[in-house]
Amino acid sequence: MSQHHKGHFALKACAISHGEVPTQACFDANPLTFIADELYGANVDPLYPERAYIPRTDFEGGLVRDGSGYLFHHRFQLPANLEGDLVLIQWHYVTGNSCLDVGYNTYHWPSGFYPGDLPICNQPLPEDGSVIVFCLLRYVTCKLLLTNRSFLATHPIDEVCLSSFGTALS
Questions:
Q1: Nearest alpha-carbon partner for 67 in 1, 5, 4
Q2: What domain range is 104 assigned to?
């Protein structure tokens, strides 16, 4: 991620056939569940299990960076009933630098994560992205060819998406 605006990531999935156009309803019916933050230790939010919160840039020990930006290593679980040879992943990045999304006041923030005392964002958040910033727009929908679930057991979704985009959409 090249720009850091605090907040959280949420992932949704949609299984389609080749040539089929996915619908937002399909993605909305298949939210992924956040399992673990392998780099910074974000807690699972029991009220919003789809959210992977990201630490501030002043996180103790610092954020891991590469030549293009900040790195994150999150593990997510696909819905149990989701199956298919072509699974699309939709990645939303909800920022937390100008207002706080609903639920931020109940989350148990680890040290170095709390985005600050900001007003609550107007709800619902607009679908056009005027409040939601998608992580580098080209990353919104990640096309993944998944032939079996064991692939995801060893490849976190964020790494799979980033490596897929690096070759497919550059």
A1: 1
A2: 8-168
